[in-house]
Structures are given as C-alpha cells and as structure tokens.
C-alpha cells in the first residue's frame, strides 16, 4: 500500500526488491521499535538488545561489498534509512555510525587483515564501532583538531579528546582521526586500551534514544597494525562522512513522513466546532504543503541515490540533499506538532520528538551553514571558508 503522502506514486519508481526491503525494515520498526520508543526516549535509553535483529536484517554495513556485508545498492540503503528514521533518528544514527562511518573507514582505508578480522564481526553486530573526528574545539573545522598521535619506536602514542561521538560507551573499537607529523591519520583504537575512556554526554533535549559521548585518550599505546594504512589527510574521514550524509538525506524524510501521517490521522478524528479538523481549509492547506515537501524530498533522495549507484554523483550534490531535506523535514515536524495542539507535547505523539531529534541531525555531519557554503563555492567558484 502506498504511503498517504505519495501523491505522485513514487512507489512506482522502485523495483519489487526495493519495495520488499522497505516493507521488511518497516515491519521491524513497527514491531520492535514503535511500541517502546516513548519510554526509551523519556529515559534516554538506546535499546542495544535490538542490535542482533538489525544485523539479521543485513542493515549493518549493508551498502558494503564482501566481508559478511549485504552488498546492497545505495538506493536500497537509503530506503532502509528512511524507514529507520521514521521510527526515530537514534535508530538510523546507530546504523549510520556503525556502517557508514566505522565500517566504511575500515572498508575504504583498512588493510586486508583489518577487514577480514573486523568487518564480519561488525556486520553481525558482535563488534560495535564508533568514529572519532569531532573535538570540543574542532567541529565544523576538523583541520583544527588537537588530538595527536606521536611515533614511538615501531608504534604510536595517542593523546587528546573527541566530542559528540556516537556509540562511544558501547563500542569495542573506535576509529580515531589524529594529527601526526605526517598529517591526519586514522587509527583503530580498542576501547579497552589503557588510557582510553568514554563518558556519556547528558542530559540532552534531542536524540535521547541515542548514545553520544566524549572520548579521552591519555597516552594510549597503539601498534602500527592499528593504523588504517590507506587513510592519509582529511579526505579519508570526509569520504566516510559523505556516506553518513547520504543516509541522512533519506532519513530526514522518514521523520517528516511519520510526522505527517500522525497529523493526518489526528486531524481526521479530532472534532472541533462540529466537524473533524481535517475538514477545515487551513488544516488541508497544511497537510498539502507537508505532503508536497515530502514528495520533493523523496524524489531528491531517489535521484541522488540513483546517481550514487551509477557512479555519477558529485560531492556537492550530497550537500544539496542534506541541506534541503533536513531543513524541510524539521519544518514539517514542527507544523505537525502544532496541528496536534496541546496533545502535541506528549510523547504519545511523535512529531515533537522528531523535531527535537532533527535539531541534532541538521547540525551533525555538516551544519546548514557548512553545506550552504559548499554549495556557494560550487555556484561562485569562491571559497568562503577561509
């Protein structure tokens, strides 16, 4: 059955296999996540018990080839991210950090030994990874990172800190980017290494059913075998970030679609002045505007996904999707909350939870301003960053 907001029959643009994947992920979210998300959000809990089920669905590193990964297309990955974020941004974030960041870093830049040892375990959910790039004083400008790795004999010594790192307190490995005398390099850091510590960042008003942490490294000793041999310079982590940003393009529309559906259902049954709210012109206008933006956002995500699969996607196009879809999704969620009146602040209803989460989603993996300037440089040929 097509989604209520699908005015253009976008479903017809997907293959039977893509629609079957969508339905499997949607069923998982409906069965395992929706009945509990209000409680998890209220008490700031990420349900680690569902990680094996996500692995069974092939969601962890699903767009990677080999090493126990599902080898799905970029479009299929995007479809799954949309369904996960319709449940909650924290659910999509887990899959993004694990697959698009930590696993992608190993898949793109690791040695064959590292890939063989870690990727099958991560795809199965037995090993969780995190991705340490952002620092307390280096967010949008990672070139200002202070974390350093110094050569020491045939190994390395790591010192510094990272902030806003998803999954840090439950991860067995951390992909850590550090400045060295040879430039930025990437390392696989066991989280049980002496001198490694992770603490939760709390309390939060957003992404409450998700894990964000601060990592600290105090003379953490690493071997040369812990370094990602193919990672040199900031281009390496940015390649992973683009994978995560791509997933957000789809995911944000999942949060928007869910908020729209809640508002549509609520206004159809809520009686005011002798008729349902959905019978009023202002309500219908709001629903129409929301549906139009969801459709445009989904078409944008699909177009970018097809180009990614075809190998024709350019770097700035990720910014088009991330900037537009996050911006429109948060507006849709806010409008949906308003249509619920006072009931909209209750966790029984999802729009305000989605809107709060999207405050984080539009900030991480590049703020609105960063993506605006990336596109500004594309249009003018002039960089405004420096």
* SSE ordering: HHHHHHEEEEEEEEHEEHHHH
How is the CATH topology of the largest domain named? Butyryl-CoA Dehydrogenase, subunit A, domain 3
Query: In order across it, which strands form the biggest sheet?
Result: 1-4-5-8
* Rg over C-alpha atoms, rounded to the nearest angstrom: 21 Å
Percent helix among the residues? 40-55%
Round the mean pLDDT to the nearest integer and report it: 96
What would CATH call the homologous superfamily of the largest domain? Butyryl-CoA Dehydrogenase, subunit A, domain 3
Number of helices: 11
Helix vs. strand class: alpha+beta
Q: Which residue ranges are poorly predicted, with pLDDT under 50 across at least 5 consecutive positions?
A: none
Oligomer: single chain
The geometry reads as globular
Count of distinct strands: 10
Main sheet characteristics: 4 strands, mixed
CATH architecture of the largest domain: Up-down Bundle
CATH classification class of the largest domain: Mainly Alpha
How many separate domains make up the residues? Answer: 3
What amount of the residues lies in strands? 15-25%
The first-to-last residue Cα distance is 50 Å
Cofactor: FAD
Catalytic activity: glutaryl-CoA + oxidized [electron-transfer flavoprotein] + 2 H(+) = (2E)-butenoyl-CoA + reduced [electron-transfer flavoprotein] + CO2
GO molecular function, one term: flavin adenine dinucleotide binding
Organism: Pseudoclavibacter chungangensis
